[in-house]
Amino acid sequence: MTTPPVCDYEGSDYQTIFWEQGGRAYEDRAEAIALKKLLPDAGQLLLELGAGAGRNTPRYTGYERIVLLDYSRTQLAQARARLGDSPRYTYIAADIYKLPFIDSLFDGATMIRTLHHMADAPKALGQVRRTLRPNATFILEYANKLNLKAILRYWLGQQNWNPFSLEPVEFAALNFDFHPQAIRQWLKTLGFRIKATRTVSHFRLGLLKRLFPAAFLAALDGLAQPSGTLWQLTPSVFVQANLTGPAQPTVAPQKILNWLQCPECGTHPLTDADEHLHCPGCGRNWAFRDGIYDFREPLT
Ligand SMILES: C[S@@+](CC[C@H](N)C(=O)[O-])C[C@H]1O[C@@H](n2cnc3c(N)ncnc32)[C@H](O)[C@@H]1O
Asked: Is the CB of 55 inside a 6 Å radius of any atom of ligand 1?
């Protein structure tokens, strides 16, 4: 199966450089506020897509179990070091374009700062949709090409791409900004209904961040976020969408083997072999090492 290229974070110090030393306390707090407002109070099984080093995972307090999925094994290792091993967390290295889960499994999913890297966003969103149950809640964050700064730069002739056109813009290799209308259209086509939209990071300006404490700016941001229902001009937008369709029983299979399918051939169930999972359909073996299920490439 051919899939689009992946922006590979293997070995990256993203969490340290971008978040911990990057002066982004305001953005982090603003995201926490948006998530608190958009997450349901309770849920069973949440899929965190592009979980990275687990920065947001502790915020998903209402869910009984959380599957952290990321293409990068080293990001997942950092998440595991932060969150530890417990029945509540499952760590899976896999490509969002080939999710190793059976259909209609999760009653929740989040995708924060990750669609940003999808060269084929509708394809990625289609995979998310496949693995969600009807009525599941999907919280999607996307980078907005129609942001105020991009509009001003375009009008002043400092930027050659048009922020008003619907197609994504790849402003750096495998880094994409999206038009809000395109996102709404893709979600609708896939059967999602948007329940809420919050615009985030209204005050992402170096000068403001130097002048005011992060907590103050984030609190102001929280007040401004609901305006996302009316217009979206911030660099980051959070959408809460529900998958439409008849309700299904809400019991998730307890054992992970009941959740998984081969990402290459779709066979389910996989069988539990020594230190790896075996696919009886195509014969591939998938490693389980250091607490992480690895569906990136099969064992030889
Ligand atoms: C910018 S980081 C965001 C991490 C985390 N969501 C956060 O907000 O702190 C993007 C993450 O998406 C992951 N990623 C990118 N493309 C992916 C793909 N095709 N499948 C799975 N993960 C992917 C990267 O490995 C990286 O950890």
From this structure: yes
In the chain, the number of structural domains is 1
Q: Ligand 1 pocket test: which of 8, 10, 48, 71 has the largest number of ligand atoms within 8 Å of its C-beta? A: 71
Residue 169 resides in a domain? yes
pLDDT in tens, 70-123: 999 999 999 999 999 999 999 999 999 999 999 999 999 999 999 999 999 999
Q: How far is the CA of 214 from the centre of ligand 1 (A)?
A: 24
Residues 6+ apart with CB under 8 A from 13: none
pTM above 0.70, yes or no: yes
Question: Strand, coil or helix: what is 68?
Answer: strand
Count of Cβ atoms closer than 10 Å to residue 206 Cβ: 8
> For ligand 1, atom 13, which residue shows the shortest CA distance?
50
Ligand 1 binding pocket mutation candidate from 17, 47, 55, 70 (most atoms within 8 A of CB): 70
CATH of the domain at 150: 3.40.50.150
